[in-house]
Specification:
The structure holds two protein chains of two kinds. By secondary structure, chain A is mostly beta strands. Chain A has strands at about 5, 10-15, 20-25, 30-40, 45-50, 55-60, 60-65, 70-75, 85-90, 95-100, 100-105. Chain A is built from no helices and eleven strands. Chain A is globular, with a radius of gyration of 13 Å. In chain B, the strands form two sheets. In chain B, strands 2, 4, 5, 6, 9, 10 and 11 form a seven-stranded mixed sheet that branches. Chain B has a four-stranded antiparallel sheet with strand order 1-3-8-7, with no helix packed on it. The chains are: A mainly beta, B mainly beta.
């Protein structure tokens, strides 16, 4: 059975304090790993797609990396507006399986 | 990025009534759309995969007669919650796949059944 586990469940950072979120997966036939940001009461906002081990993508303060077992979302010098729930999802065949998310709070 | 629009964003209905939620891809054609359900502080659970011009594929445990899905065009999929009950109250989110394979989500629809 495909499994996606995100850690930590919740993370509190001070503004400027860099950290990483983890997404571990066990799937057969990965066809992409996705990172999304979700604000309360909103749909997920697309951040990145990674397809193969060793791939990295960056967007502003965020950088996503991928290995054969896990993905990291690195947040450099976060700001309060980065506070949100970050979801990762893996695609196997045509469907996405989501992790439970990491709720990030960045205090000013 | 691509835009996916959901309507309504919030709906309150009485128990026993039916509610329709629309999902539109505004700037691309989506042969496949997905419907998710999300409870508070939980992740998204896939309910069904909607393919244009064919019957939806439902996940195990999702009642197809309760949650009617229609994908009549390349830009529109609808989810109808029939004979809604309070336990159907949830946040329903759709996503649409672009021709490049990326997935974009709608803003979600919060259903409250009284």
């Amino acid at each position: 059975e495909d499994q996606v586990t995100q850690s930590p469940e919740a993370l509190r950072l001070q503004e400027g304090e860099s950290s990483s979120l983890n997404c571990s997966y066990t799937v057969s036939g990965l066809r992409g790993l996705f990172w999304y940001r979700q604000d309360p009461g909103k749909g997920p906002e697309f951040l990145f797609t990674l397809y193969s081990a060793g791939e990295e993508k960056e967007k502003e303060r965020l950088k996503a990396t991928l290995t054969k077992k896990e993905s990291f979302l690195h947040i450099t010098a976060p700001k309060p507006e980065d506070s949100a729930t970050y979801l990762c999802a893996v695609r196997v065949r045509s469907r996405l399986t989501f992790g439970e998310g990491t709720q990030l709070t960045v205090n000013p | 990025g691509a835009v996916v629009s959901q309507h309504p964003s919030r709906v309150i209905c009485k128990s026993g009534t039916s509610v329709k939620i629309e999902c539109r891809s505004l700037d691309f054609q989506a042969t496949t759309m997905f419907w998710y359900r999300q409870f508070p502080k939980q992740s998204l659970m896939l309910m069904a995969t909607s393919n244009e011009g064919s019957k939806a594929t439902y996940e195990q445990g999702v009642e197809k007669d309760k949650f009617l899905i229609n994908h009549a065009s390349l830009t529109l999929s609808t989810l109808t919650v029939t004979s809604a009950h309070p336990e159907d109250s949830s946040f329903y989110i759709c996503s649409a796949r672009t021709p490049d394979g990326e997935l974009f989500f709608g803003e979600g629809s919060r259903l409250t059944v009284l």
